[in-house]
Specification:
By secondary structure, this protein is of the alpha/beta class. Helix content is about 45%, strand content about 15%. It has helices spanning about 10-20, 35-45, 60-70, 85-95, 105-135, 145-155, 175-180, 205-210, 225-230, 245-255, 285-290, 295-300, 315-330, 340-350, 355-370, 400-420, 425-430, 435-445, and strands at about 1-5, 25-30, 45-50, 75-80, 100, 165, 190-195, 210, 225, 235-240, 260, 270, 275-280, 305, 340, 375, 385, 390. The chain starts with a strand and ends in a 7-residue tail after the last helix. About 25% of the residues are buried.
Length: about 450
């Protein structure tokens, strides 16, 4: 357990350090308010012993800041002062301090308060985990594809192997990663997500591995990386296919050595972290193109899991729609609308290119905008009546035979694009014989350029 002592008196810092180390605590020291804040953000100690009268930034100002930033909800703060009075103590407790001890410090009382603080930390941790479990969404669906996915999650969660999750954008890859973490032996430790595509190339190493003060321009204080923060738990590397090659090299070394080096340091810090990654890219193709390391691929691809797109989940779309309608109706304090039968039919036929994310966003929009008991087709966005850029409406000006042929041609081109020109997959998707597909392609003069 980490304790940070912030006090401007060297004698008190040394005395507390010796006593606390003898009791088995990991102790860090700071002689001023500014140094104390640096160490709080860099080290995130479990317990902070804070003197109220400090040079520079007073202890009460630090307490106000930690309370405002909700750090008092994660760390236990014990305030100490040689100028204590009841009013000061009450004010400190109201701002989130756990207890107040007057100087000269009675070390027996301090150790007694620390024992209570440890129990408080356990309670904080349990409450945080419970809140996370109650607030997090579960994987909803009963389709064969989702049943298979749940079985895979149940199988891989208890072991510590590296997992990579494949799936189109918006399918819920992070939800799968969180489910693996929640069912694992690491469930009571941190789950730390990081989107590799959302961080500039020149900052991703600092985010992953941390840095020392002065390591580069703007590094005004030491900062822990995501791997250190995730120690004992799970790190989720989303969009791993977008990670720059230099960072890939360092990640590979971390996976092999189970240790990180902060930027600007040569000290190795051991980390016990399970790595779960995800991508919507074809990593094998990225390897051929030289944008992804083959050795890292084999490290990450120990247990691959594929998340099905929403269009392959059948009536799960209706279960999910109802779930999101319930959620957003409660969030916005609205009467929950129902889907009409016509809308349900449209939902089941629609391709959902944005997957579950698209459905979730649509349900939120409908709850806000539709003030009727039932959602009808006219309430849906126009793109739901458009397939891959062509509208059914434009065929209404043609005779039936021509409209049918034109639609069939567009439909075949669309499916061939989805399957990257793979004729067998396209025929299977259309549920026709391969020879029949070849005849239609020849009939309509569909060329490779169109696909």
């Amino acid at each position: 357990m980490k304790i940070l002592v912030i006090d401007d008196e060297a004698g008190i810092r040394e005395s507390l350090s010796d006593i606390l180390k003898d009791e088995g605590y990991n102790v860090s020291l700071a002689e001023s308010g500014s140094k104390g804040l640096e160490k709080i953000y860099a080290e995130m100690p479990d317990i902070i012993i804070l003197d109220l009268f400090l040079p520079g930034i007073p202890g009460m100002d630090i307490l106000k800041r930690l309370s405002k930033e909700r750090i008092t909800e994660k760390s236990v703060i014990i305030v100490i002062s040689g100028h204590g009075n009841i009013q000061t103590a009450v004010e400190a407790i109201k701002m989130g301090a756990f207890d107040f001890i007057e100087k000269p410090i009675n070390f027996d009382r301090l150790l007694s308060v620390l024992e209570k603080a440890k129990k408080q930390l356990t309670l904080i941790k349990e409450t945080t985990i419970l809140k996370e479990r109650l607030s997090s969404e579960t994987i909803i669906g009963t389709s064969p594809a989702i049943r298979k996915l749940k079985e895979q999650i149940d199988a891989v969660a208890p072991v510590d192997s590296t997992v990579i999750i494949y799936g189109e954008s918006g399918t819920g890859k992070e939800l799968v990663a969180r489910s693996i973490h929640k069912l694992s032996k690491r469930a009571n430790a941190p789950f730390v997500p990081i989107n590799c595509a959302a961080i500039p190339d020149n900052l991703i190493e600092a985010e992953l591995f941390g840095y020392e003060k002065g390591a580069f321009t703007g590094a005004n204080a030491r900062k822990k990386g995501k791997f250190e923060i995730a120690d004992g738990g799970t790190i989720f590397l989303d969009e791993i296919g977008d990670m720059p090659l230099m960072a890939q090299s360092k990640l590979l070394r971390v996976l092999e050595e189970k240790a990180v080096e902060r930027i600007g340091s040569i000290e190795k810090i051991n980390v016990d972290v399970r790595v779960v990654s995800a991508t919507n890219k074809n990593l094998e193709k990225a390897i051929e193109e030289g944008t992804f390391r083959e050795d890292l691929y084999y490290r990450l691809n120990v247990i691959p899991i594929h998340v099905p797109p929403l269009r392959e989940r059948g009536e799960d779309v209706l279960l999910l729609a109802d779930h999101f309608l319930t959620k957003f109706s409660a969030d916005y304090k609205r009467e929950k609308p129902q889907l009409s039968d016509d809308v349900k039919e449209i939902f089941l036929k629609y391709r959902w290119p944005g997957n579950v994310r698209e459905l979730k966003n649509l349900m939120e929009r409908l709850v806000i905008l539709v003030r009727k008991e039932k959602i009808e087709p006219e309430d849906l966005p126009e793109n739901m009546f458009t397939r891959k850029g062509f509208s059914v409406n434009r065929f209404t000006t043609l005779p039936l035979k021509e409209a049918r042929e034109e639609f069939e041609k567009e439909y075949i081109i669309s499916i061939l694009k989805e399957t990257n020109g793979d004729m067998k997959k396209a025929a299977a998707k259309m549920q026709i014989d391969l020879s029949n597909l070849y005849r239609k392609i020849n009939k309509y003069g569909i060329s490779g350029d169109a696909v």
